[in-house]
Design goal:
The chain is α+β, with helices and mostly antiparallel strands and about 180 residues long. It folds into 2 domains: about 5-60, lambda repressor-like DNA-binding domains (434 Repressor (Amino-terminal Domain)), CATH 1.10.260; about 85-180, Sandwich (Jelly Rolls). About 25% of the residues lie in helices and about 25% in strands. It has 5 helices and 8 strands, in the order αααααββββββββ. A 5-stranded antiparallel sheet has the order 1-2-8-3-6, with no helix packed on it. It has a 3-stranded antiparallel sheet with strand order 5-4-7, with no helix packed on it. β4 and β5 (about 145-150) form a beta hairpin. It is globular and about 45 Å long. The N and C termini lie far apart (about 35 Å).
Length: about 180
């Protein structure tokens, strides 16, 4: 099963598990019923923004859709977190680093943005975010002002301020995004 089929089937299975219709998810996310249906049937792919909206509507972290196994391990150690095969298949990777911890107070994710990718439109949400660039040059827009972050640069922001990330380079960017639950 390729990643797109896996993502679509995970969205569909979780939606059905939560006993939600496509119409209800559409109303919660602002995404069209036809887009959601195409996504569930692997006829289209999701942007980071649409995936974030879907995950919020279904009550999971966006990384839920990328995990290869759904075990609830209590391990705090996560090894070999980057699957390089995903870089060629997808526009981005969103890897949950909670190690299966139930109800974490904050959510650490490794995000890899491929060249030319971004998170979709500027958006805001509850909570706070901390970004730490590991590799590459990340452009972040906060309250419609852009800043360039190089490796080992970081930013802490109020997530209710409109913000976005961009990869204007020709190489993947790896960065940590640690966000609060609320």
């Amino acid at each position: 099963m390729n990643h797109t089929q896996n993502l679509g089937s995970k969205v569909k299975n979780l939606r059905k598990q939560k006993k939600l219709t496509l119409k209800q998810v559409s109303e919660k996310t602002g995404l069209s019923i036809s887009f959601l249906s195409q996504l569930e049937h692997s006829k289209t792919s999701a942007t980071l923004l649409s995936l974030k909206r879907i995950s919020e509507a279904l009550g999971v972290n966006p990384s839920y859709f990328f995990s290869s196994s759904m075990d609830n391990s209590r391990s705090a150690i996560t090894r070999n977190i980057v699957d390089m095969a995903n870089l060629t298949e997808n526009r981005f990777i969103y890897k949950d680093l909670t190690g299966g911890m139930e109800n974490p107070l904050f959510v650490p994710n490794l995000i890899i943005l491929n060249p030319g990718d971004n998170r979709g439109n500027n958006f805001s949400h509850k909570g706070q975010e901390f970004l730490y660039v590991l590799e590459g040059t990340l452009t972040i827009e906060v309250d419609y002002e852009e800043a360039i972050l190089q490796p080992y640069d970081c930013i802490f922001l109020d997530s209710s301020t409109p913000h976005n990330w961009y990869n204007y380079t020709d190489k993947p960017i790896k960065f940590l995004c640690i966000s609060s639950r609320e």
